[in-house]
Design brief:
Elements lengths: L2 H18 L1 H28 L3 H9 L4 E5 L5 E3 L5 E3 L21 H9 L7 E13 L4 E8 L12 E5 L7 E5 H7 L6 E5 L9 E10 L8 E4 L13 E7 L8 H9 L2 E5 H5 L9 H6 L7 H32 L1 H9 L4 H42 L10 H18 L1 H9 L2 H6 L10 H24 L2 H27 L7 H12 L1 H35 L8 E6 L2 H4 L2 H11 L2 E12 L5 E4 L4 E4 L2 E4 L19 H8 L2 H4 L12 E3 L4 H5 L6 H6 L3 E3 L10 E7 L18 E9 L9 E3 L1 H7 L1 E12 L5 H14 L3 E5 L8 H29 L1 H9 L4 H51 L16 H22 L12
Parallel strand pairs: 5-10, 7-9, 18-22, 19-21
Antiparallel strand pairs: 1-11, 1-12, 2-3, 4-5, 4-8, 4-11, 6-9, 7-10, 8-9, 13-23, 13-24, 14-18, 14-23, 15-16, 17-20, 19-22, 20-21
Helix pairs in contact: 1-11, 2-9, 2-11, 2-12, 9-12, 9-13, 9-16, 9-18, 9-27, 11-12, 11-13, 15-16, 15-29, 16-17, 16-18, 16-29, 17-29, 18-27, 18-29, 20-26, 27-29, 27-30, 29-30
Length: 950
């Protein structure tokens, strides 16, 4: 028979067999279709989420020919998409300066006048100014991006979508984004007051909310839009000024016009340059340097390949036993084919055709399901991405490739059952006898070698090379090796049956005897659990590292209400009243910053911000405040001496953080030391006796004295201790007591009495509280809202230790592994029942009760889950430890040369490897129990008697 005729016959037989065994066929189709649904959905979501050039332009510049944005630097050079760099110092559009840019314009008319010099004659422009402001809400105040423009102008069409109400038509009207409205608690018709940072809210501009909108490109932006000029204030250096320009004619803004705008400091986003870009030869070398690099992420590619490989392995492991049982259920049919002259290749073709047929069904279902899933969850995906999809983008060639991949998976899953079915003697197929089957001796040997090699590659690659690619490759090789060893390990587990009672002994021996269906199910559980254990181990190890590095600013359970500056100090009393209304306070202690007395604060306004300065007080060490590790003679120092110097506050900036602030000299009562966690033996007594507490002996002026300097004038340059480099206006010497562990303490602590005697004034900085109980989220939000309403720079903090952020992720991973484990174990149990129907009938015939049969099925399912979970836990530790070694190697590569050169005093980095015990408990204990219970409850009590053969 020709090959074509053979495959036509095989496909016809496979189709009929699939329709006869609907349950088994549906099971295989579902297993193959599930990853296809995910792949199709991901492809469609990514393609539809990647906007076309036309969609990007509409959302960026509306219907305008171009946008002109003033950078504040000239000349500049840009590329065709609007990425730019200056031509003098190399600062690019991706860099943010620490200083406010120069104010070049203050009104819309002034910005338009600046642009008229570079715009074609006859152009029209729509003004758009963006700045961060403060806006009132139903709860207090919040940050908002305020845009001054006309959103209903024809040039702005497409940039924003009006959802409710109308666009503003008057200067006292405002529209808000959905994100701002959802967070503010406001609705249309309410009033909102907007003002710049640092200004009283009662001096702001009040608007009426008349509309709600969304920006398709930024769904999560908290934004307000008012008419141009409605803010009634001048533009500061941080405001972004932009013009949407419509030029006469059909040529748009070409490269010549763009270069002319660049010379004046305008960056241009042009529709013409996006749709019809010229040759890159016209770009400046500085612009070309911005895009250097291959853009290929080798690690990402490696991880993607590993993920796809494991998905294919998982599906094949789950579907393979179903095909194997299908081959056994069809063995009489295959025997008839052989008895009538059928060749082995024809019997192989029939089984392989089953994989093709079921894979094709899965491909169709996966395509339809993936497309339907994306359409169903489109709003959720858009919310996660923060942008609306463009038009649906069906790449049928890619989708067809995914469908072909489903057929390939089905074919791969049927290969081994087809091979075994073709080798079965015709007489054994007709009589139903299976004969004696021996396990392969080569496969465990190969698997053991792969396990050792993969483990060595993962661990040594992480430790010696510090690369993730060998870790990923080694983990996959080791896992495949362990999968190859699974039949042998299942047989080893079967030897434990002799010590078990009757029912578990039968279950374990049946699992060991039928390794063809047990081993793939165990391996499938192994693969799912290994990935979960690997991710969980890395996650909890990262958490352990961050927990060890976390520095508490207060004792656990205490709270602090602190003012950042002198302006915030004016609202502290009101903030204290609000906080104490919500908190259950056991003890309260106030803190103050020492400043020169009498208290005399001066406010400075440089045109774009204001601040208040009250003077500084700080320690004056005997040899000056210069760090020896940073002097000109530091290169001659021995590395160990330089490392010792770096531990001094003269080098690290000194001063521990207390409740979010750091001050050189803090004024407090001795009783407050306990609330700050500084209650080492003898400290409170020394402070009560009139001695200043000093954080480090390098700050002393003499053996037992500390010299404090008072500075009344604001300086332009400060030293390492945060004090002016100029000579102090006055000096005071106080007796001192050096703290044994002052790393987390202020540089100097004195009492109010000592401050008064020294001629210093207290500047209120806040309060620390000893709380009766940790406040809940609602109480903290209430305090925060009251503080925001006060308008000062005040912060409220409750010290409740390091908060783990990944507990939810670990729970999701454990649930995922639970579902896969129970599913794989349930599949194997169902196949065992179908495969061992005669054995169950025999048990029933000899008097076995329904309870015994249910217990047997439950134990079969639980044992498969337990074996897979145990092996998966071991397998998952290999990549986890390898990845931790990679991170540790990177830390060492950074630390070692700096330690040898004396450039850091940090201790040697530790390698944190912590086991996810809760995940182990869920997987090793809970999952097998759940699998056993479900299988026991779902197993039918009645077993039909099998037809006698012969």
């Amino acid at each position: 028979m020709k090959a074509g005729s053979t495959w036509r016959l095989a496909l016809r037989v496979a189709r009929r067999d699939a329709l006869r065994a609907k349950g088994r066929s549906a099971l295989v189709v579902a297993m193959i279709a599930l990853p296809i649904v995910g792949a199709v959905g991901a492809d469609l979501a990514v393609r539809s989420g990647n906007l076309s050039v036309a969609d990007k332009l509409e959302r960026g510049i509306g219907q305008a020919d171009a946008s002109y944005e003033l950078t504040g630097s000239d000349p500049i050079a840009q590329d065709f998409e609007g990425k730019w760099t200056t031509l003098d110092n190399g600062a690019s559009s991706e860099e943010i300066s620490a200083d406010a840019p120069e104010v070049l314009w203050e009104t819309p008319e002034e910005l338009i006048a600046l642009a008229e010099e570079v715009l074609p004659e006859g152009s029209s422009a729509l003004f758009e100014r963006t700045d961060w402001q403060r806006a009132t809400t139903a709860h207090g105040v919040d940050d908002a991006e305020v845009v001054e423009t006309d959103p209903g102008h024809p040039l702005a069409e497409g940039k924003r979508t009006l959802l409710d109400g109308e666009w503003p038509e008057n200067d006292d009207e405002v529209v808000a984004s959905s994100e701002f409205l959802s967070g503010s608690g406001l609705s249309l018709g309410d009033e909102v007051t907007v003002n710049a940072w640092g200004e009283p809210l009662d001096e702001g501009t009040t608007f009426t909310l008349v509309g709600e909108y969304e920006a398709p490109f930024e769904l999560d932006v908290s934004e307000l839009i008012v008419r141009p000029g409605a803010m009634n204030d001048t533009a500061n250096g941080w405001a972004v000024g932009k013009l949407l320009v419509d030029v006469p004619g059909d040529t748009g803004v070409d490269w010549e016009l763009t270069e002319r705008a660049n010379e004046a400091g305008f960056v241009v986003v042009s529709r013409e340059l996006h749709l019809n870009p010229p040759s890159e030869s016209v770009l400046a070398p500085e612009v070309l340097a911005l895009d250097s690099g291959s853009g290929v992420d080798g690690t990402g590619v490696a991880v993607a390949v590993v993920a796809v490989s494991l998905v294919v392995l998982e599906v094949c492991l789950l579907a393979g036993p179903a095909f194997a049982v299908g081959a056994r259920r069809s063995r009489r049919q295959l025997g008839l084919v052989g008895a009538n002259g059928g060749e082995r290749r024809q019997m192989r073709a029939i089984m392989l055709a089953s994989g093709v047929v079921l894979g094709a069904m899965a491909a169709v279902i996966g395509l339809i399901g993936g497309i339907a899933l994306v359409m169903l969850v489109k709003p959720l995906l858009e919310g996660q991405m923060g942008t609306r999809f463009g038009s649906w983008d069906f790449r049928w060639l890619e989708l067809g490739g995914i469908a072909a991949f489903a057929v390939l998976i089905g074919l791969m899953a049927a290969v081994i059952p087809a091979y075994n079915a073709a080798r079965t003697p015709v007489l054994a197929s007709l009589t139903g006898r299976r004969g004696v089957r021996h396990s392969s001796r080569v496969l465990p040997l190969v698997g053991g070698c792969m396990l050792l090699f993969g483990t060595s590659l993962a661990l040594l690659g992480g430790l010696l090379l510090g690369e993730t690619i060998p870790v990923a490759a080694g983990a996959v090789i080791a896992e495949l090796g362990l999968v190859a060893c699974t039949p042998m390990l299942v047989g080893a587990f079967g030897r434990l049956a002799r010590w078990l009672p009757l029912t578990p002994r039968l279950a374990l021996r049946d699992a060991a005897r039928n390794r063809g269906r047990t081993a793939p199910a165990v391996a499938a559980v192994l693969a799912a659990v290994a990935g979960t254990v690997a991710v969980a181990t890395v996650t909890v190890s990262d958490e352990a590292k961050m927990r060890s590095e976390y520095q508490a600013q207060l004792p656990d359970g205490n709270a602090a209400l602190m003012a950042y500056d002198a302006d915030g100090a004016t609202t502290l009393d009101q903030a204290r009243t609000s906080a104490e209304r919500e908190l259950r306070v056991n003890e309260r202690q106030d803190l103050a910053k020492a400043v020169p007395g009498p208290l005399n604060c001066e406010t400075t306004d440089d045109g774009w911000s204001t601040w208040t300065y009250c003077g500084d007080v700080g320690p004056l060490p005997a040899d000056g405040a210069e760090c020896p590790a940073y002097t000109e003679d530091a290169d001659a120092m021995a590395p160990e001496d330089r490392r010792a110097a770096l531990t001094s506050p003269l080098c690290d900036g000194g001063g521990g953080i207390v409740g979010g602030i750091s001050e050189p000299v803090l004024i407090l009562e001795p009783e407050a030391l306990a609330l700050l966690g500084l209650d080492e033996p003898g400290a409170a007594e020394a402070l009560a006796a009139g001695k200043a507490l000093v954080a480090h002996e390098d700050l002393l002026d003499g053996p037992d004295d500390v010299r404090l300097g008072a500075f009344t004038k604001e300086a332009e340059e400060y030293d390492d201790l945060g004090l002016p480099v100029d000579a102090p206006d006055r000096e005071v010497t106080l007796p001192a007591h050096v703290l044994e562990d002052g790393d987390d303490a202020p540089l100097v602590i004195i009492t109010p009495e000592m401050a008064t005697e020294a001629g210093f004034a207290p500047l209120d900085r806040g309060t620390v509280y000893d709380l009766d109980e940790t406040p809940g989220e609602s109480a903290q939000q209430a305090v925060d809202a009251d503080i925001e309403m006060l308008g000062g720079n005040v912060t409220f903090r409750v010290e409740d230790g390091y908060k783990e952020k990944n507990s939810l992720a670990l729970l999701v991973l454990a649930l995922f592994a639970t579902v896969i484990t129970i599913g794989a174990a349930g599949i194997a149990t169902g196949l065992a029942q179908a495969d061992a129907a005669a054995d169950l009938s025999t048990l029933s015939a000899v008097g076995a009760t329904p309870r015994l049969r249910r217990a047997l099925s439950g134990l079969q399912c639980g044992l498969i889950a337990a074996m897979g979970v145990l092996l998966g836990a071991v397998s998952g530790l290999i990549p986890a430890v390898g990845l931790r070694l990679v991170e540790h190697r990177a830390d060492l590569d950074w630390w070692q040369p700096r330690w040898d050169a004396g450039e850091t005093a940090l201790p040697r980095p530790e390698m944190f490897i912590e086991l996810p015990w809760m995940t182990f408990l869920q997987l090793i204990v809970v999952v097998p129990l759940v699998a056993w219970l479900l299988a026991t409850l779902l197993t039918r009590s009645r077993v039909p008697l099998a037809r006698r053969i012969g």
